[in-house]
Amino acid sequence: MMSEHFPLNTPFKPSPALITWFRVDFLLFIIALFGTTFAPIAAFGDLPFEVDLWILGGFVIAILLFSIWTGLYYNSMWYELREDEMSWKRGIWFRKTGIVPYNRITNLDIKQGPIMRALHISTLSIQTAGYSGQAMPEIRIEAIVHAEELRELIRTMVRSTSRWGDGTGTGAPSPMPVAPGIEIQILEELQKIRALLEQKR
Asked: 39, 125, 157, 167: which one has the fewest Cβ atoms less than 10 Å from its Cβ?
């Protein structure tokens, strides 16, 4: 299966909307934290004005640092689909890389929250045989615009490389691949065995 958006042996990155998604999520978290902790203390507490400014400045610095980190994190990310496996890399201070053979993949789930839906992106979570009992998937391909297309492409790769189904954990075993011309060789051997048996009669 050929894909226009996810060609094989070519690294690809998430949508740049990942940066907006991360920043909006973090900003909403800061607003919720500000509204439940700092705002009541500032309104009804007896903290000096200078302390209020320091706390407010801490929130602003946290937002700025997270915004910078998000851009650097996005730049560090890439994924690549190959004929028999997929690989990924991410991380700024702690770099993480991984390789997952298609025949280990058991589940492919697409997730999309309200902010992601507004940005037209989704996350493809990939569960493997070794991680079936874990709460977290082994790989998350985040902020993908054509998530359905990517899932179908990986499902196709799983079917072509694995004996054990279609990548969802529900498919029936497919037959073992047979090398070209092996049927003719087997037939010839059987004919020779038959001829020898007939000679001994």
From this structure: 39
